[in-house]
């Protein structure tokens, strides 16, 4: 990831295209107004300097990337973002805005790629459901600290 600007300003989340990385915005961001924005460019999983998904994990490009974006927004506790996406990042942005419209203040899409001709309501309902179930699972999952305590207690 790479960021520009004051972290207290309006967040702009920038997401790259397929087979690209956060550096795709290195020449664009310096040309944009920075006085009131904080730009964060992320690497999607499996791109740039990010980790790949674990071996054997069923890989659902759109769903996994949309959930990744949601996790970034949640991590920074952003109430609303300006989302800027290029190509695949733009497609992810369209779906992210459709699934979580309350989190997107503005959507900027550069050179989008197409993905599917299924009705968008089908995707948004499925992705929101998947996110909610994943979130429930993570909330109920055991964390590292609890794992260590349990392992120590069994010896």
From TrEMBL:
Pfam families: Abhydrolase_1. InterPro entries: AB_hydrolase_1, AB_hydrolase_fold, AB_hydrolase_sf. It comes from the Eukaryota. Signal peptide: none annotated. GO terms for cellular component: membrane. Residues 11-140 form the AB hydrolase-1 domain. The keyword Flavoprotein does not apply. GO terms for molecular function: hydrolase activity. The keyword Hydrolase applies. Keywords: Hydrolase. Belongs to the AB hydrolase superfamily. This is AB hydrolase-1 domain-containing protein. It comes from Timema poppense.
């Amino acid at each position: 990831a790479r960021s520009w600007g004051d972290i207290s300003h309006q967040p702009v989340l920038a997401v790259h295209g397929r087979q690209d990385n956060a550096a795709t915005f290195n020449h664009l961001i310096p040309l944009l107004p920075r006085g009131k924005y904080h730009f964060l460019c992320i690497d999607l999983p499996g791109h740039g300097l990010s980790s790949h998904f674990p071996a054997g994990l069923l890989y659902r490009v759109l769903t996994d990337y949309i959930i990744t974006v949601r996790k970034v927004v949640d991590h920074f506790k952003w109430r609303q973002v300006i989302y800027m996406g290029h190509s695949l990042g733009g497609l992810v942005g369209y779906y992210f805005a459709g699934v979580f419209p309350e989190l997107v203040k503005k959507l900027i899409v550069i050179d989008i790629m197409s993905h599917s001709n299924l009705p968008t309501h089908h995707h948004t309902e499925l992705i929101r459901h998947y996110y909610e179930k994943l979130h429930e699972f993570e909330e109920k999952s055991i964390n590292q600290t609890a794992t260590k305590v349990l392992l120590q207690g069994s010896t």
